[in-house]
Amino acid sequence: MPFLALYAAPRLVSLSPVDLVIVVFYFALVLSIGWYLRGHARTGEDYFMAGREMTAWIAGLSFLSANLGSLELMGWAAAAYQYGILATHWYWIGAIPAMLFLALVMMPFYYISRTHSVPGYLKLRFGESSRALSAISFAFMTVLMSGINMYSMALVMKVVLGWDIHFSIWVSSITVAIYVALGGLRSAIFNEVLQFILIWAGALLIPILGLIEAGGWTNLKLQIAHNASAQYTHLWSTMGSFTDNPMGIHWTGIVFGLGFVISFGYWTTDFLVVQRVLSAKDMRAAELAPIIGAAFKSLVPFIVILPGLLGLAVLPMKLTGETAAVASGGHSYNEVLPLMLARYCGPGLLGLGITALIAGFMSGMAGNVSAFTTVWTYDIYRALIKKDGSDHHYVNMGRWTTILGVLISVGTAYLVMQFASIMDYVQALFSFFIAPLFGTVLLGMLWKRATGPAGFWGLLAGTLSSIGMYAWVKVDHTALRYVALSPNARDMAENMYRALWSWVVCVLVTVVVSYLTSPKPESELDGLVYGVTKIPEQGEYPLFHRPAFWATVVGIGFVVLNILVW
Amino acid sequence: MKNMRRELPIWLFAGISLLVNGILITAAGIWEIVHPPANPVVLFRLHANVWWGAVLAALGLFFCIRFAPKREP
Fold first, then answer.
1. Closest residue, chain B, to A211 (C-alpha)
2. Does residue A505 fall inside a structural domain?
3. Distance from A285 to chain B by nearest Cα, in Å?
4. pLDDT, chain A, mean
5. A153 vs A274: CA distance, rounded Å
6. How far is B17 from chain A (nearest CA, A)?
7. A344 touches chain B (CB under 8 A)
8. Does residue B2 belong to any structural domain of this protein?
9. pLDDT of the residue at A8
10. Quick one: pLDDT at residue A56?
11. Residue A280: is its pLDDT beyond 50?
12. Total domain count for chain A?
C-alpha cells in the first residue's frame, strides 16, 4: 500500500482560517442538500433510481464525478510524474471509446429493459444464477473498495494537513451516510455534480499557473526532457517496445487490454457509473449523458496529468518512490499534487484545493455506497431473501443498507490500517470480475444465440481464469512471459493482458456452451438483445440534438488530442 | 418530472457554492495585497486568488440569478 509509508511524513501544508471556513462550508452544503432532498425519496424508484428524471447534463456530470473519486486526482498526478504523459492513456483511449460505445450501443438495452442495475439486466437476459454471481461479487467488492478509499483519504489528510486519521474517517463517512441515506441516489447525484464543479474550480488553477511558470507547453517539454527524458511527453511514439517507455508496456496492451477490455468493462458494466446514467429522464438523455461525460473526461488530464508533468519541470526537489522517500526524508510521487497546490495557492485557494480533494474522495465513496445499496436491496435481498416486500419496505431496507454499507467500509478502512497488504489483494480481486462481466454483457446484448447457462458459465470461467493467472504469476514470476507476453512487462502491463485473456476465456466458453444448450425464444429477448429489439429512432430531432452527432464530435476531439501529443 | 418542478435545481446549489467560495477567496487575496505574507507562494505577483476568486464569484452569481426559484404568477 503506497500511501502507508506517508504516515510518518510531516504535514505538507497548513490551512489558514479562511481555508478552514471553505472546507466547513463545503460539509455544511452537502449535508444541507441531503436534508433538503429527504422528502424526494419516498418510493423505490425515487430512492434507488432518482425517480429516473435526471437531465443529460446532471446524469453525465454525475457519471464522471462518481469515477473522479477514489484517489483519482492524486494517484494519476503521481503516475504522470513517474511515467510521464503515458498516464493520459487511462483518460483517453482507456475511457472515451468505451463511453461512446455505452452511449450509442449499450445504453438503449439498459434503458429499454427498465432494469434497476447491471446484475438486474443479467437476470433478464441470462437468469437468476448469472445475476446472483454478478451481484454478490459486485456488492462485496464495492463496499471493500469504499473502505479502502476512505482509509486512503484519511491518510492523505493526515499527510497533507496533519489531521487525525480517525477524525477524517468518521467525519467523511458520517457525512456520506447522512446525505445518501436521506436523499438516496438523487442526493448522491446532486452532490456529485456539486463536487465535480468544485474539483474543477479548485484544481484548474494549478496547470494555468504552472504553464505560466514553465513558459508554455514547448518550454515545459524541453525542461522535462532535461530533467527526466523526452520519452515522458510522447503518448504513442515510444510504445513499439516494452523497453522504450517508462511504463514497460507495448501498444497492444494499451489498445486491446486497456482500451478495449478493461475500459469497456469498467465504463459499460460497472454499476457504480452505469447507475448514474440509468437515472436519466428519457432515452435521449441516457444516450447523451455518457457523451457529455466523455467530453469532460477528455479534459480531465489538464487538471490531473498536467500538474504531474509540471512537477517534473518546476519542482526544485526530485520525487521518488515511497521506500526511497521514507529513507531519505524526501517527498514521494504521491505528494506531487499537494506540493503543486502549496506552491501556487495562497489562503482561500488552498482551502478550495483541499476541498476539491475531499470532494473527489467523497463523490467516489457516495458512488460506491449508493450502488452497493441498490444491488444489495434489489439483486440480493429482494431476489434471494424476501421477494414479497412492499415498496416502502425496500426503501427502508435501502436506507439501513446505506448506513450498514458505510459501517462496513469503516471496518474495512480499519482493517487495512492493520493489514496494509489487503489493499493490493482487494484491488486485484476487483479487476478479476470486470473484464469477464463485459464479455457476458456484450454477448448478451449483441448475440441472440447466447443462452442462460452460457452466460453463467462464461462469467464464472472468465473470473476463475483471471484469478488463476494472477496466482500463477504470484507463485512463479517467470510466468509473466506467458501472461503478459514479455518478461519485461511491469504490473500495469500484466493487468492489461490478464484482463484481455480472461475476457477471451469468457467469450469462448459462452459461445461453446451456447451451442451446446437451447436458446431462449426470440419473443423473450425483446428489449434485451440487438436484432430483436426496436430501438427508438432519433431522426425527429434536429442534428444538434442527436447523440450520434455529439458522439462524432467527441470522437474527432479524441483523435486530434492523441495526434497532438503523439 | 413530477418532483423536478418543485425542487430547487442543483445548479442553484452550485451557484451558491461558487459565489461564497469566490467571495472568500477574493477577500483573502485582497488582504494579502494589503498585508503581504512573509513567505509568498510562487507567482504571488499575479495575485491569482484575487482574479480567480472574482471569476468564481461572478460565475456563482450568474448561476444563482439564472436558477433562483421563480415566484408563481
1. B43
2. no
3. 13
4. 88
5. 24
6. 8
7. yes
8. no
9. 44
10. 95
11. yes
12. 1
| Partner A contacted by B40 (CB < 8 A) | yes
Indicate whether A247 pLDDT > 80. Answer: no
Q: Is B49 in Cβ contact with A346 (below 8 Å)?
A: yes
Contact yes or no for B41 and A36 at CB 8 A: no
Bridge partners of B23? none
Residue A73 lies in a domain: yes
Rounded Cα distance, A223 and A203, in Å: 23
pLDDT of residue A426: 63
- Report the amino acid identity of residue A258: L
Residue B48 within any structural domain of the chain? yes
- The residue among A138, A145, A141 whose CA lies nearest residue A441 is A138
Residue A219 placed within a domain: yes
Residues spanned by the domain of A356: 2-425+527-564
Whichever domain contains A110, its CATH number is: 1.20.1730.10
The residue-averaged pLDDT of A339-354 equals 91
DSSP string, A337-380: HHHHHHHH--TTHHHHHHHHHHHHHHHHHHHHHHHHHHIIIIII
Percentage of chain A surpassing pLDDT 90? 51
Q: Is the pLDDT of residue A379 over 80?
A: yes
Q: Select the highest-mean-pLDDT range: A84-88, A342-346, A422-426, A514-518.
A: A514-518
Residue tagged 462469467 (cell numbers): A459
**8 A C-beta contact, residue A268 and residue A438:** yes
User: Is residue B5 domain-resident?
Assistant: no
Residue B14: domain span: 10-66
Residue A152 corresponds to which cell in the numbers above? 486512503
Smallest CA–CA distance, residue B71 to chain A, in Å, is 19
Mean pLDDT of all residues in B24-45:
93
Tell me what pLDDT residue B2 has.
45
Q: What residue spans of B1-73 are helical by DSSP H? A: 10-34, 48-66
SS3 of A453-512: HHHHHHHHHHHHHHHHHHHHHHHCHHHHHHHCCCCCCCHHHHHHHHHHHHHHHHHHHHHH
- The band of A421, judged by pLDDT with boundaries at 50, 70 and 90, is low
Residue A133 covered by a domain:
yes
Q: Is pLDDT above 60 for A6? A: no
For an interface test with B, the pick among A24, A36, A344 (most B C-beta atoms closer than 10 Å) comes out as A344
pLDDT the model gives residue A534: 82
Return the closest-CA partner of residue B10 out of A58, A269, A154. A58
Task: Domain count for chain B, please give it.
Answer: 1
